[in-house]
Amino acid sequence: MQPRRVARQIEQIKRELLSLGPMRPGTLSRQYAACQKPGCACVDPVKPKRHGPFYQLSYAHAGKSTTRFVRPGYVTQVRKELRAYKRFRELTQKWVGLELTLSQLRLEQARREADEN
Q1: What is the pLDDT of residue 116?
Q2: Rounded to 5 degrees, what angle do the CA atoms 45, 50, 51 make?
């Protein structure tokens, strides 16, 4: 692999990172609950009809775990931000891998030049 090609790939990653927009880490889960009030449909022994769905966002940041409820109107936006964060992680991992490759190519080039002299 040529150093210029690797450098171009790194530049492409940087451009894509700049275009990601809002992001957030975590997972979004859909949950249902039973209130357990006598006579409520959620406690029907044959066909319980639980309340919900409720959306819950869970994430860890700076060593601290957090859980937040998300209103139904914000679920689409939160999912978009979660996808952006996932793409951010993929791109940064790829960037690091390319930087390692580029560093190795530079070392090999320096060794060849040293051997020629």
Answers
A1: 85
A2: 150
Element (H, E) at 54: strand 51-61
Report the distance separating Cα 78 and Cα 22, nearest Å.
9
Q: What is d(CA 99, CA 93) in angstroms, rounded to the nearest whole number?
A: 10
CA–CA separation, 102 and 92 (whole Å): 15
- Which token pair is 75? 């679920």
Q: Which two structure tokens, joined as six digits, stand for 84?
A: 């952006």
- Which tens digits make up the pLDDT trace of 44-98? 888 999 999 999 999 999 999 999 999 999 999 999 999 999 999 999 999 999 9
pTM score, two decimals? 0.81
Residue 117: per-residue pLDDT: 73
Instruction: Count the helix, strand and coil residues of the chain and give each as a percent rounded to the nearest 5.
Output: 55, 20, 25
Helix, strand, or coil here: 51? strand
Cα dist. 20→37, 39, 84, 95 in Å?
Answer: 46, 49, 6, 15
